[in-house]
Design brief:
Layout: E1 4-12, E2 17-25, E3 32-39, E4 42-48, E5 60-64, E6 67-71, E7 77-80, E8 90-93, E9 99-102, E10 108-111, E11 118-120, E12 138-140, E13 143-145, E14 156-158, E15 168-170, E16 183-188, E17 191-193, H1 209-218, E18 224-230, E19 236-239, E20 247-249, E21 257-266, H2 292-327, H3 330-333, E22 343-344, H4 347-353, E23 360-364, E24 367-373, E25 379-385, H5 392-403, E26 413-419, E27 422-428, H6 450-470, E28 474-476, E29 485-487, E30 493-495, E31 502-504, E32 511-512, E33 530-531, H7 534-549, H8 565-574, H9 592-605, H10 616-623
Parallel strand pairs: 22-26
Antiparallel strand pairs: 1-2, 2-3, 3-4, 4-11, 5-6, 6-7, 8-9, 9-10, 12-13, 14-15, 16-21, 17-20, 18-19, 18-21, 23-24, 24-25, 25-27, 26-27, 28-31, 29-30, 32-33
Helix pairs in contact: 6-7, 6-10, 7-9
Length: about 675
């Protein structure tokens, strides 16, 4: 070999030195993401992620909270650590030469394995445009420093002062409850966000840098704003990741765009004076004997009048507060519209758009949905909520949260209306309606072919995986059913009503609540009101069965032995005759192994023990053929012997932040 070179990401500085980065030999026409051991200028290959699949010069390594991945210069994913669902915050090299991914507590969640060491011809290492991945930090040549605000204030601290490559964290954590002005964006010069070359992650409708910054400041989920200008375009792209985990030094020469980077920080609150001044208290003179009774009587009467006066003032203030709440609170509701966030419509606007709510598309437990059209010709679906939430501010806060969530397989919230007692939500219009109109077999046979059904199943899984694992707060839908899966003109499936659910902090593995759901789609743990994301996975399993088999989960028109789909699945699963539960095996479903595999995925999602159900990200990989189905599926289901019981129809106040928090 003519020698070796390496673009370094991480360094273990003590002898023997270990380097992690892009390794190449000879003329460096291709690269390997590797760990090498260097002694006396000689390099030994310790580990390689893509030993059989080299990448090109502009390949990218990306660290997210789901793990580490390698993409080639064309964006193709070449390798992944397969740690989706874990809260990864950084990576480092150990003294043994192992690459380790760790969480906030410093616990290693994944590590590379030591492979057979291969010696290469020695030359000096070079590091051109080096970069590394870690926490919120500025990283170059395997070392990281912390950004400083333009005001000179330090907003970040190193996670471990003795290990600079571990990166930085905010001194004052971001708070969604902070008033406007308590957060700002720190510009990071000469660094850019690694995912900025993938424009599919950009926020729609934000075309200028100032709009991108303002949208980030208004969006609780935004951890930083990254704006990209292409050299041949007038408009730019806005990126607002919830966590800033990967930034790179400089601009890559082969990129045809420039970018500007900002990280959101919390402005520390002003501390009170350590020496507060207290007024001197002078005791009043003691009254003498004969005056004591008179003073007591007068004091009692005065106290009574004072209490009456305070009650009057309090009732007036409460009345005024209620009126201001109904009007929307001018200071809160008249704020400037932020690009990319939901648009505020007047009730009159939506009344005209729907021709006075003429065409009803459907009705749910909390209101009706009407078809409408905006003045620019955009078709919309307007959901008119029949029941009021607890307050305007809570309603608007949750609308903002829902509006900040963007994914191709989630129905997009365009806008809303909040006037006095009126609450309306405006969604993108889905021309093919809900999934339940297309999947159940009738006298004319199936409406959708097998390939379309498979695509719809994958679309639903991707949408749920995003809600469960890629949002700043884990979102549990709580009411997955065909009626809440909508189809566009190309039969792309999108999950709807995902914002009408309980937001659960990522640190909470489960919450104890009482909720409503839809009978037939409820997981067994609803009996104990113990709710995790696994209840959605159970509901997804039922929907998957309905899509594949063409049967409803419970059909009273059938014989008792086949009326309940779970009972049929249990019976045929034990008999190893899963295909018997499919209503009609069409000609385009002639791949019986593929159909049977789908049913096994559904059964995996339907395990009574919620810990045995796979996370949605794993379901996506199984559907894509990257992973295999669990071979130890138990075909015993609690709900198999009869129709599921209707759970309590009430919603506890601990869950109901607003009417938006209720499943449909």
């Amino acid at each position: 070999m003519d020698g070796w070179q390496m673009r370094v990401l991480l360094v273990y500085p003590k002898d023997p030195r270990f380097y992690c980065g892009f390794f190449c030999t000879g003329t460096c026409e291709s690269y390997f993401f590797s760990v090498v051991r260097v002694v006396g200028g000689n390099a030994s290959l310790i580990w390689s992620a893509n030993g059989r699949r080299p990448v090109q010069k502009n390949a990218v390594v990306q660290l997210t909270n789901g793990g580490l991945s390698l993409r080639d210069s064309n964006g193709t994913k070449v390798w992944s650590s397969n740690t989706t669902g874990n809260s990864i915050v950084g990576m480092n090299l150990t003294e043994a030469g192992k690459l380790v991914l760790f969480n906030n507590e410093g616990t290693g969640l994944w590590q590379s394995t030591i492979q057979n060491q291969t010696n290469t011809t020695s030359t000096n290492t070079t590091s051109q445009n080096d970069y590394c991945s870690s926490g919120d930090g500025l990283c170059s040549e395997g070392l990281c420093s912390c950004p400083v605000g333009v005001d000179g204030i330090e907003y970040f601290k190193q996670n471990q002062s003795q290990f600079a490559e571990v990166g930085c964290s905010r001194i004052t954590p971001l708070s969604c409850n902070s008033p406007l002005g308590q957060q700002q964006l720190v510009e990071v010069r000469n660094f850019t966000y690694l995912s900025i070359n993938e424009t599919t992650e950009a926020f729609p409708n934000i075309k200028d840098m100032e709009g991108c910054k303002q949208a980030c400041l208004q969006n609780c989920s935004c951890g930083g704003a990254f704006f990209r200008y292409d050299s041949d375009a007038e408009d730019g792209y806005c990126f607002m990741p919830s966590r800033v985990l990967v930034i790179r030094e400089g601009q890559t020469a082969n990129y045809t765009f420039t970018s500007t980077s900002f990280i959101k920080v919390q402005i520390p609150s002003l501390a009170p004076s350590p020496f507060p001044t207290e007024p001197e208290i002078v005791p009043p003179p003691r009254p003498k004997g004969n005056n004591l009774a008179a003073i007591a009587a007068g004091s009692g009467a005065g106290a009574f009048l004072l209490v009456c006066f305070l009650i009057f003032i309090l009732s007036m203030k409460l009345r005024k507060s209620k009126e201001e709440e109904e009007e929307g609170g001018d200071a809160y509701t008249n704020q400037v519209q932020v690009p990319g966030m939901p648009v505020r419509f007047s009730y009159e606007d939506l009344r005209r758009a729907t021709e006075e709510f003429k065409e009803r598309l459907g009705r749910g437990g909390f209101g009706s949905v009407f078809k409408g059209m905006l003045p620019d010709g955009t078709k919309i679906a307007v959901k008119r909520l029949d029941k009021m939430g607890p307050g305007m501010r809570e309603f608007l806060a949750e609308v903002e949260t829902i509006g900040s969530i963007h994914h191709f397989n989630l129905v997009r919230l365009i806008g809303f209306c909040a006037e006095k007692s009126k609450r309306l939500l405006v969604y993108e219009y889905m021309s093919n309606g809900s999934l339940d109109n297309w999947i159940f077999y009738g006298s004319q046979g199936p409406c959708l072919d097998w390939q379309t059904r498979k695509k719809i199943i994958l679309d639903i899984a991707k949408g749920l995986a995003y809600l469960h694992e890629d949002c700043r707060q884990t979102i549990v839908h709580l009411d997955i059913k065909p009626q809440n899966i909508l189809l566009d003109e190309n039969f792309n499936a999108k999950v709807s009503d995902f914002g009408l659910s309980k937001l659960i902090d990522k640190d909470e593995s489960q919450v104890l609540i009482t909720m409503r759901g839809t009978p037939g789609y409820l997981a067994p743990e609803w009996r104990e009101s113990r709710i995790t994301v696994k209840v959605d996975i159970y509901s997804f399993g039922i929907v998957l069965l309905e899509i594949v088999t063409g049967r409803r989960n419970f059909d009273r028109t059938r014989a008792e032995s086949s009326s309940h789909i779970l009972g049929l699945l249990q019976k045929k699963g034990e008999e190893e005759r899963l295909l018997d539960i499919v209503e009609i095996l069409d000609e385009d479903m002639n791949n019986r192994e593929e159909v049977e595999r789908m049913i096994k995925i559904a059964a995996w999602c339907l395990q009574d023990d919620h810990t045995r159900r796979p996370p949605m990200s794993v379901v996506v990989k199984v559907l894509e053929g990257v992973m295999e189905v669990d071979s130890n599926i138990i075909y015993k289901f609690v709900h198999a012997m009869g129709p599921p019981a209707v759970v309590n129809d009430r919603v506890s106040t601990a869950v109901e932040a607003s009417v938006l928090s209720n499943p449909r």
